[in-house]
Amino acid sequence: MSRTPQYEKLLADLQAGRLKWIEQRTLKALLKSPGGFTRQQLIRRVFHKRPKPNLNNDINDRMIRKAIESLRNKGVLIVSTSGGVGYQLDADPETIQCMLQELKSRIVRLQERVDAIEYYHSKPTKKR
Q: Which candidate, 80, 84, 70, places its Cα nearest to that of 100?
């Protein structure tokens, strides 16, 4: 993975302890494994615990996903794939474009939902 100025700053923040502990542990795990991790593997690496059979009920999984969201908001290119490994750091332009397209698609779908709600709930209701 190439080291951009953003990654250099992030690594400096990591070394200086300026990231939350969960972000630090998650980022360190991803930095050590260029091939990425599944959600279950990340729970084992970050918390040293076995994940629950149903990840929807696993608070550790939720905490890792929040840490990943926070890292992404800081500009870290953590790619997630539903059909692949799970999470990995990636600076490949093609992969980044795929991730951006998926995010833009979500924006379009959410905007359609917002528009529908505004349309149906902004009309005055008739009193009987």
A: 80
